[in-house]
Amino acid sequence: xxxxxxxxxxxxxxxxxxxxxxxxxxxxxxxxxxxxxxxxxxxxxxxxxxxxxxxxxxxxxxxxxxxxxxxxxxxxxxxxxxxxxxxxxxxxxxxxxxxxxxxxxxxxxxxxxxxxxxxxxxxxxxxxxxxxxxxxxxxxxxxxxxxxxxxxxxxxxxxxxxxxxxxxxxxxxxxxxxxxxxxxxxxxxxxxxxxxxxxxxxxxxxxxxxxxxxxxxxxxxxxxxxxxxxxxxxxxxxxxxxxxxxxxxxxxxxxxxxxxxxxxxxxxxx
Length: 270
Description:
The chain has eleven helices and eight strands. By secondary structure, the chain is an alpha/beta fold.
């Protein structure tokens, strides 16, 4: 199992594919298994894909000390150092998008291109899930009923059309069951997310940037994408109609193509 110790934490990582390096940064409670094979297989035709588990998540070592988004960004940069990678394309989704913002601001020399998916930047214009959705999710997560909690997470992360397919639900259950994240650790990640505020610093980002968001995102509404795109010089905004928070599950081919287009990379072998 490939691991590396950075900043006194042991991180699990995977490398696959060939081409220019692409660092994938996962969101809250997610790990390398949550990217989905369709998305990863498409990307690895063009890029050397580096995916990893945040501190305390998945196959990385347990970590129970509080941390910030900046700490997670420092972990990612230290991982690049350990792997001997000077400059990479970066794609971060949700909480991972917040981490990617911090990398692009504080270590701009490491970022070839920047893809920010289904994320937010903090500040006065940022919005979270609606009060109704937050209550729906909180009640499910604290119910003690595992299936209810999983169904709530599934519903809040995807579009109704995607959720209607039983095969998608089964795949979600398998991913969630493989390496479950303790609820107490999700609370640590949530504290880091609440403390994230890059709003007044996004103008410092110099990397070519793509902002991607599903219009039916209930976790972090799509208005956040417009705010981010307006604040980053030259950023391109791509709204995916009728798609939920985990857009890379619902539209893996299109999502991979958008990242390729930003990187100026060919589609690779079919």
